[in-house]
Amino acid sequence: LTSIISLLTTNDLLRSSCPAGWRKFNNRCFIYIPRTMTWARAQRNCVSLQATLASIHSFQEYHYIQRLITTATHGSPQTWIGGSDAQEGVWLWSDGSPFLYSNWCRGEPNNYMNQHCLQMNYGESKCWDDFQCDQHRPSVCAKNI
Q1: In degrees rounded to 5, what are phi and psi of residue 77?
Q2: pTM, to two decimals
Q3: Apex CA 47: angle with CA 43 and CA 50, to 5°?
Q4: Do residues 59 and 103 touch, judged by C-beta distance below 8 A?
Q5: Where would I find the C-type lectin domain in this sequence (predicted)?
Q6: Each residue of 57-88: pLDDT tens digit?
Q7: Which CATH superfamily is domain 2-144 in?
Q8: Helix, strand or coil for residue 11?
């Protein structure tokens, strides 16, 4: 009986933690991907990890992801996250969650030269910017625990 209880407890711990290299915040796991790629390729890469490009739902979550990037890079590179507006002006998260929180830079999103993908850490304010999806950026993936 003790072995069964121990096994169940271990399984519960495994379910509530993140895979190696991933970092936990609330009920999700995040990982910074330093290799630069287009937004679509970054999303496919996240899917290959059973994840999606990160959606962000609060200032605290955004700040956590910024710290994750800073820890990995010792900087604040512009980085892909999971927002896009294939239908101009209708921003959606690639994981299907509601797009309720935003941290757009002043004057953004502006769709300059058909910008439909969301990068974070833009400009001095390290806020959000719509950008051309075919440009290469590092990325952050997220998955639910």
Answers
A1: -65, 150
A2: 0.87
A3: 145
A4: yes
A5: 25-142
A6: 999 999 999 999 999 999 999 999 999 998 88
A7: Mannose-Binding Protein A, subunit A (3.10.100.10)
A8: helix
